[in-house]
Fold each of these.
Amino acid sequence: MTVESVVEVSDLKVYFPGRRSSGQAKSLVRAVDGVSFAIAKGEILALVGESGCGKSTIAAAIMRLVAPTAGRIASGGVDLATVNGSALRRARRRFQMIFQDPFGSLDPRQTVYETVVEPLVIHGVPAEERRTRVLEALEFAQLLPPERLAQRYPHELSGGQRQRVAIAAAVVLRPDLVVADEPVSMLDVSARAGILSLMVDLRDRLGISYLFITHDLSVAWVLADRIAVVYLGRIVEIGSAAELVAAPRHPYTQALLEVTRGDGHRTLPGETPSAAAIPTGCRFHPRCPKYRLLNEPSQCREVDPVLTETATTLVGHQSACHFVEENQ
Ligand SMILES: Nc1ncnc2c1ncn2[C@@H]1O[C@H](COP(=O)(O)OP(=O)(O)OP(=O)(O)O)[C@@H](O)[C@H]1O
Ligand SMILES: [Mg+2]
């Protein structure tokens, strides 16, 4: 039996024209460079990786805020990578997004009611239904009592409450998928836990799926069913959150975990690479401790590894490393 997917992304690529440096040809910025994954109904998939690895660009492509260069984004019988017009409008109703900054994402001149009713107006929900739907969404987001909170302006709310308003506006149309790009990274620790448990609660109550973007592996571990680790525009490891954290197989995931478990002051060794100059072979090899340990095998420099399962991991746990069987 196959589980129903809300979205299936295959070999997604998003390239941007790069800046021209003196005397040289323009280098292409390969922000997303062949990414595939599916999200099941009610599933939370986390995308984790360093700054600049392409997480937000993957999100933007799924929301069609940027046009994909190549690949498919299949959902509800259409390909969101290429669909236009009324079919795109219908698809937009099923996918909603929450952004990082709860201060910048709300219009300071609009009341909470005006913010949350907006998607209903845009998508033509009849006027007589709107008030009930808005109050219900505020209740879902635990903005209580809804009638009173509806009259507030953003400056009267805390960061956590503002993010709840953004969540209410995202779920008011009962979407299939919510794409959340670093939704808790600007909140203080106490507000963070509340927002994360609210998201899980909405998944349970409404069956919403999430694509949850974070640079913090520990947040992904707490929240997600599955984690995809992204490095330079590619998924280098994907698997159940529990197994990926307990038994990471890719040297990059292993390094990220060490940083997460450390004192918080350590960063990954080596320079953060550029999407305008992706290394040949395995794109991680210039920073890979395993590559050095194995005396720099030519395979790592020459052959781009594909995601594969190993004999000792659960089905669906895949890593893109030539030496994955040895990375235990
Ligand atoms: N519109 C654009 N034009 C050119 N390059 C872009 C554009 N948007 C993103 N990039 C580049 O694409 C790469 C991926 O950027 P992206 O914002 O997706 O990373 P990210 O993983 O979300 O990073 P962060 O954790 O800092 O938010 C980076 O090299 C970035 O500079
Ligand atoms: Mg980003």
Note: The chain is about 35% helix and 20% strand.
Amino acid sequence: MAKNIDKKLKLTFCSGVDTVTGANFLLEEEETKTKILIDCGLIQGETSAEEDNKKNFSYDPSTIEALFVTHAHLDHIGRIPRLIDAGFKGRIYSTPPTKDLTRFMIEDAAHLLAHGQNVKEIERIYSEANINKMMSMWDTIPYHHPFVIKDFGINFKNSGHILGSALVEITYQGKKIVFTGDLGNSPSPILPDCEEITDATYLIMESVYGDRNHESRDDRRAMLEDVIEDNSKRHGTLMIPTFSLERTQELLYEIDTLMGKGRIPLVPVFLDSPLAIKLTEVYQKYGEYFNTEAARLVHSGQDIFSFPGLRQTPDVEQSKMILRMPNPKIIIAGSGMSSGGRIIHHEHNYLPDPNNTILLTGYQSAGTLGRYIQDGAKIIKIAGEDVPVKAKVAMISGYSGHKDSEALLKFVEVMEDSVKQIFTVMGEPKSSLFLVQKIRDNLGLQANAPEKGQSVWLEF
Ligand SMILES: [Zn+2]
């Protein structure tokens, strides 16, 4: 039998296709049977999500050599404790910030998941002991420090999506397979731009916004300035429901910049999210992962996530005190879609007053409280109570953390000469298929939207 000729790898899309969550991809070397995983994320948002998360993995976790983690969003890390519980004994690799952020994200998820059914199982899987075990199996490798696992060369490159987010570049038989994780909507206020990849042979790419383009990013800071100024003039409370990871830190940095330049008045800002407070501390540790301007400020001794007037309220009692603080004031709290978290209490208190403002800075999923507010509902229900929405509703969409359709196409365009096959993952079917069509039509490249559980052979 001929050896080292026509070597093959089997790539399986275990989950993270036909949907934007649940990233989990398996690469298997045909000859040595070495198996590696890329991401092991929670399936979120769909009605069947809870059931899907509980399902056994389609492979035997004890046979997996290594898991590479692109970034610390739950849809990329949330099922790692379950993988360990199911027998995974290999090593986990990511950049240093991803490992630090993961611990807090998983601990927070454990609280949320514990509210579901099967409390005993969740308590076992997300126990402190199992989370500690996960951390002890985890090695960190900075960007551009290539390393070798069996037949695979691995290199993390910056994807510009959240702190520490990586594109995983896998070299096999001299050719490159690239898993994008999530691709950042560069330029970001904090992070360097997503790196260009020009020499991938196989590309497994996210497609969250495969069929849509974002509004201009240029105006986002000016819009934020206007909303804050307007709120101060009206002596109101400005509520900003926001995601704890990256969006909160972006906002803190933007407010810090605006205050520093005297563009907005010095009003009290309450960071009312225990998770966001912990995650911001991780950001403060990693100034070297910021873009040139943000890194320069950190280097000169500035804390870019803090400013006069910022108050953190990790405890419930402190959170309740916010109500007694005089206006104008700003409250930043989770969750980003008002589907839970402390923002709900503030919405209950402040939405009925027309002098107040609620500012939506991210995508609001259908069925969430945030979506009802965005769609102009006059009355919403909070804890069974009718709450009139009289506060002003403002929106800024330029803060999206994902590349839009046009930017995704540009990302592919530069690898036109090398790329043999592209797989679109992590998107709703409409979005993934639209991107496939665009890649075929505009660039004449081979692209496919794989199905859940599908395996393909990659040839070298
Ligand atoms: Zn992400």
Note: The longest helix spans residues 96-113.
